[in-house]
Design a protein that fits this description.
Quinone Oxidoreductase, Chain A, domain 1, Rossmann fold, 15 strands
């Protein structure tokens, strides 16, 4: 049956450009893909930023911006078709499977096409709404901690890790993942979120509105930076000549491309990263920028943590698809605690 999808045809504010298109044909499933009836999705800060024009030069050059654009990077739903020539994976997909996935866009719709190796079975203990708050945020944390910084969940016990913006969707899941792996976690957040972050398991919580991180923390093994202005303080908190690692998910790369153009921006970003890597290498540290990578195998590990009771979803507010403008505006207010979920009527 025909479906709905959030669309925009130019960059701008949520109220000016977002619309819900109706009676759209069901997409055809391609090779190596799953066609999913989306039961719940999300609004992430990156959705709002891209809708406003952030990264447009990069996304357009890579063919990732085709009008009309559909936002949404979390999928929680039911497989209704399976494409031919699927890759050899550790899971044999079947119609009717309930799945989660993180995508690069297009999930704020009744139907989404998802590469087979991006998906994992939905945690059995979660509703579709709860499950939609997990994939993109958890894989952003995984891409930073595991893929970029090289933290192995099997050897994380006893490591001392700093997590900034720990009440957000990414930070909150990062705290829980690290505690599930046995790490010691110091976390930053605002006054209203101190008890919330402590309840997530953080060993030390710093209220950044009352205390400066600089000078408070020492001899840490890893800094996970989701902030915009704490890099210097976090680097000061790391061990010297101790294989400490800094990783940021808030990098200047796309801003440089927007300001300087694709080629010059890429060059400037590469030079800046190389300078910082070299400077930290002299101190016996590694320095990384991280970007979310879809990863079905990692999602399987994350889903197992959820079903074992080691990681819980953090849902700030739920909106229906027709409230997408309000959902984007709430996201841009900076007041959300955890993830904003879009209910597409998929039930529990």
């Amino acid at each position: 049956m025909p479906g709905r999808a959030v669309q925009y045809r130019r960059y701008g504010t949520a109220r000016d450009v977002l619309e819900v298109a109706r009676d759209l044909p069901v997409p055809e499933v391609g090779p190596d893909e799953l066609l999913v009836r989306v039961c719940a999705s999300s609004v992430n800060p990156i959705d709002c930023a891209v809708r406003g024009g952030y990264g447009r030069a990069f996304f357009e050059a890579r063919g990732l911006s085709r009008w009309p654009m559909c936002p949404g990077r979390d999928v929680s739903g039911e497989v209704i078709a399976i494409g031919p020539y699927g890759p050899a994976t550790s899971h044999s997909w079947q119609v009717g499977d309930l799945i989660i996935a993180a995508t690069l866009g297009g999930a704020n719709a009744d139907y989404a096409r998802v590469p087979q190796n991006w998906a994992a079975l939905k945690p059995a203990s979660l509703s579709f709404i709860e499950a939609a708050s997990i994939p993109y945020s958890a894989l952003t944390a995984w891409s930073a901690l595991v893929d970029a910084a090289g933290l192995n969940p099997a050897q994380a016990a006893g490591r001392r890790v700093i997590v900034t913006r720990a009440a957000g969707g990414v930070g909150g899941l990062a705290v829980q993942m690290l505690k599930a792996w046995g790490a010691y976690v110091a976390a930053t957040c605002s006054t209203r979120n101190v008890e919330f972050v402590r309840a997530l398991g953080a060993d030390r919580v710093i209220d950044y509105s009352k205390e400066s991180v600089k000078g408070l923390l020492h001899d840490f093994d890893l800094a996970f930076d989701a902030s915009f202005d704490l890099e210097e303080a976090l680097l000061d908190a790391l061990k010297v000549q101790g294989d400490a690692r800094y990783v940021s998910i808030v990098t200047p790369k796309l801003r440089l491309i927007d300001a300087l153009g694709l080629e010059e921006g890429l060059r400037a970003g590469d030079e800046l990263l190389a300078e910082r890597v070299a400077a930290q290498r002299l101190l016996g540290r590694s320095y990384h920028w991280a970007f979310m990578r879809p990863n079905g195998e990692a999602l399987k590990v994350i889903a197992a943590l959820v079903d074992a009771g080691r990681l819980r979803p953090i849902v700030d507010r739920t909106f229906v698809l027709e409230e997408i403008v309000a959902a984007h505006e709430h996201c841009e207010s900076g007041r959300s605690r955890g993830r904003i979920v879009i209910d597409l009527g998929g039930g529990s």
